[in-house]
Amino acid sequence: MSAAMSLSTNPVSEGDIRDRLIIGLDVPSVEEARALVGRIGEAGTFYKIGYQLAYAGGFELARELIDQGKKVFLDLKLHDIGNTVEEGARSVARLGATFLTVHAYPQTMRAAVAGKAGSSLKILAVTVLTSYDDNDLIEAGYAPTTAADLVARRAGQARDLGVDGIVCAATEAERVRGIVGPDRLIVTPGIRPAGSDAGDQKRIVTPSEGIRLGANHLVVARPIVRAADPKAAAEAIVREISQTPA
């Protein structure tokens, strides 16, 4: 049974549905991010802070959002020697973030799981970036393999190491669900509402397709951040999620 199916068997509150949309605060300053969060209002409950904002004061913003009752996904994609990753994950756990990403290398995943021990922080393993396709993997020296096969291998390793969830393209979510089982999270970036510009993403789907393929959470940045009315854009995606049959 997929995550989407298991979620559909129980009543889902409006808040729970909103939590399935993670809004990427991919903006250059804390001031712009605060203004965006204010414009989105109650339509947004879960925010992602990545490199761009994190290194521009985003960690303090993360604390503010958590204090306001919002959930925060720190998309830092940690990958370093084991001790460094473990201590980094421990610091993020103390901050009160909900999700933290690490690259899906066994030593890195093992260290992150150790670092978050005893906390509510969820470690998400990034398998293959959604901006990569098979040609990019060949260029990086991963041949002979495909993006789908590398995602599957890394998902199996993450499962065996006790990682809480997987970040992968929605196009791989169904296969990943079969590998990691029904209880682990699948978080999918590369989500674009129908008619949106794909940008630099190469393996994209619409919000409804992502849910049908088994994603627990959808990460959406540019279609909301760059919308004339970010709140309306977020509400439209939440509505699409709520109307998608499992």
TrEMBL record:
Highest taxon in the source lineage: Bacteria
Enzyme superclass (EC): lyase
GO biological process, one term: 'de novo' pyrimidine nucleobase biosynthetic process
Gene3D superfamilies recorded: Aldolase class I
Record-listed E.C. numbers: 4.1.1.23
Catalytic activities: orotidine 5'-phosphate + H(+) = UMP + CO2
Keyword RNA-binding: no
Domain Orotidine 5'-phosphate decarboxylase: 20-237
Pathway(s) where this gene product acts: Pyrimidine metabolism; UMP biosynthesis via de novo pathway; UMP from orotate: step 2/2
Single GO term (MF): orotidine-5'-phosphate decarboxylase activity
Chain positions recorded as substrate binding sites: 26, 48, 75-84, 130, 192, 201, 221-222
InterPro entries hit by this protein: Aldolase_TIM (IPR013785), OMPdecase (IPR014732), OMPdecase_AS (IPR018089), OMPdecase_bac (IPR047596), OMPdeCOase_dom (IPR001754), RibuloseP-bd_barrel (IPR011060)
Quaternary structure note: Homodimer.
Role summary: Catalyzes the decarboxylation of orotidine 5'-monophosphate (OMP) to uridine 5'-monophosphate (UMP).
Name of the protein this chain belongs to: Orotidine 5'-phosphate decarboxylase
UniProt source species: Microvirga aerilata
Designated gene of the protein: pyrF
